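Researcher: Next sequence.
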Amino acid sequence: MPIKPGQKEEEYFARSELEKRRNLEVERQARMKEEERQKQKELHYMHCPKCGMKLVEIDYKGITVDECSSCEGVWLDAGELKSVAALEKGALDKLFSIFTKG
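Model: Next structure:
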């Protein structure tokens, strides 16, 4: 005669199964998110945000900046503006003085 599981055992196994399914779904969503991030990177990495053409890295006084091969726009990565500003402090002060009141 088979032994019928008790109520507590049924609850335990049901919760265990539910937890496994939740974990699998979380992993699946994380994997999908990473795949989507990789697709977006492949589509947009080193492409001009303005016209979509390839960006070319150029050296500006020891700082690598990105220039569009088509529209010739210049794009800076994190921290590069501060580096360029430090090199060109006098020129930037003159430029910004045009916009200050007083």
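Model: The mean pLDDT is 84. The two ends are 97 Å apart (CA to CA).
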